[in-house]
Amino acid sequence: MLTKAQITRLRALREKKHRETEGLYVVENPKVVAELLAAGVTFAELYATAAWAGPAGAKTIEITAEEIARISHFPTPSEVFAVGRIAHPTPAADEFARGLTLALDGIQDPGNVGTLLRVADWFAFDRVLLSPDCADLFSQKVINASMGSFVRVKTFTAELPAVLAPLAAAGTPVLGCDLGGNDVHTLPALRDAVVVIGSEGRGLSEAVRKYVTHYVTIPKYGAAESLNAGVAAAIVCDNLRRVIRG
Fold it and tell me: Which of 29, 128, 168, 215 has the highest CB neighbour number within 10 Å of its CB?
């Protein structure tokens, strides 16, 4: 039986401040939990009802459907409640000067952040850099949208201007997605670059624009006003990977 204190602690993890204080995040999507276990993630705690058909060997704490409903962060609880440890890795001195980085500038929609992590994972980008005002990387909405990519992709959170300024000064290409940019299909082969995606509402922030070295855009043939941030990022990343292969 879960104690009242345990229930209160687990329920509190729905809020970012409590996740940061405890250093823990929660996953309740059975498919994502199974994918993370398959990827070798060791959860700090793993609660499940008898109905959960989890991977063989997964060490779970069996609780009742009533108990999992009390700790769940959703109106309709699943049969599994996994608690993982939050990690905030420190970047190496030359971390962003080499390889490919996808930088998120103020992406506040959790679904978009999760999708962008999947995009970076799909195109084997070396890392994702999030500005502090992005949606919380360890919220369940981000984790579920990323479908496990959030543990496969190296992620960092930092003020983008502080990271981009020395890169631009040293000649590392910083690509900003903007309607007034050059056709993305004309991208040269860049093995080291930062691709910056702004929010759908305001685009790139003025503070970040100071350090963009190349603006790129996706040619528009129809009447749509804009593209979803995840779709736009996928097209840019695909073209960058295509020219590198070429």
Answer: 128
Domain membership flag for residue 163: yes
List beta partners, residue 24: 85
d(CA 124, CA 130): 17
| Residues 28/80, Cβ–Cβ less than 8 Å | yes
Would 90 be classed as within a structural domain? no
Q: How far apart are CA 158 and CA 196, in angstroms?
A: 13
For the chain, the domain total comes to 2
* DSSP state, residue 189: P
**How far, CA to CA in Å, does 49 sit from each of 66, 67, 90?**
9, 9, 37
Q: Could you tell me the pTM of the whole model?
A: 0.93
Pair (217, 108) in one structural domain: yes
Q: Please tell me whether residues 80 and 171 are part of one structural domain.
A: no
Mean pLDDT per 10-residue interval, the chain, length 246 residues: 96 97 96 91 95 87 96 96 95 95 97 97 97 96 94 96 97 93 92 93 93 95 91 95 77
Residue 22 is encoded by which pair of tokens? 């405890």
Backbone angles phi, psi at 113, to 5 degrees: -60, -45
8 A C-beta contact, residue 20 and residue 41: no
Cα distance between residue 9 and residue 19, in whole Å = 10
Judge if 106 and 224 occupy the same domain.
Answer: yes
Res 246: pLDDT: 56
- Annotate 195-217 with DSSP letters as a single string: EEEEBTTTBS-HHHHTT-SEEEE
Domain extent for 48: 4-85
